[in-house]
Amino acid sequence: MDDVLERPAYVGFIGVVYGFRLETSGEFRYVGMTSTSIRRRTQQHFKNAAAGRKTAFYDWLRKASEQHVYVESLEVVTSSLDDLARSEVAWIERLKAGGHRLLNLAEGGKGPNGYVWTGEQRKAAAIRATGRPGLHRFGPDSPMFGKHHSEEQKARWSEIRKGSITGEKNPNYGKFGQDHPGYGHTMSAESKAALAEQRRGAGNPNFGKSPSAETREKVSISLHRFHHTNKGVVKPECRHCVDDAAQSPTPPTGENPNG
């Protein structure tokens, strides 16, 4: 088992399913899987917790502290990554059925499997995150302040994320009306006022910019079609209305234009 904890480099090793619990308790609180060593994955978990990652598991990990947490190997998989994912799902189901209060948000495996947070969970997460140090750093306090990601980095992210939350992979796919989590949500007057204030002057993304003649013409035509064409309104002072009338065939004198 030391090989699994330290260096999973022996022949046939694919990955391992592990569980977190307190040293003083036999109840597991989290199940995960890794294709590296358990020790390395554990270090990553504690690093994420120290950075303030917002999940119930990392909140528990911060409170428990590294000295009181025990990480146990549950199953070593030597067949395939798919089997490793299925093994994690099976362990989560087994432990939950056994009464273990797991903090896993999803069912396990290779993805979130369409898990959607409830309103109570979102509210609890917001309360836990309130006042947490090291988070939401803005302005000069942000490590990215004054910096920009390169176009190459943006392109890599775009390629990696392409199709990741589209179609059936989106947890809200096929949800409409009251079934959609955004149903009935509206911005408050205060939020609208705050957003308007942020977009004034230099805060407006178009501040200091002037649209080209081509862009202004496109906007003008679009407004004409919305306010005039679609509503059957004809105004002689509108040059687009005049152009439309000139392009329309004129019926012979005495002929009913409506047929």
TrEMBL record:
InterPro entries from the UniProt entry: GIY-YIG_endonuc (IPR000305), GIY-YIG_endonuc_sf (IPR035901), NUMOD3 (IPR003611)
Cross-referenced Gene3D superfamilies: GIY-YIG endonuclease
Pfam families reported for this sequence: GIY-YIG (PF01541), NUMOD3 (PF07460)
Residues annotated as domain GIY-YIG: 13-105
Molecular-function GO term, any one: DNA binding
Region Disordered: start-end pairs: 191-217
TM regions (residue ranges): none
Family of this protein: To endonucleases of group I introns of fungi and phage.
Protein name from the UniProt record: GIY-YIG domain-containing protein
Species: Subtercola lobariae
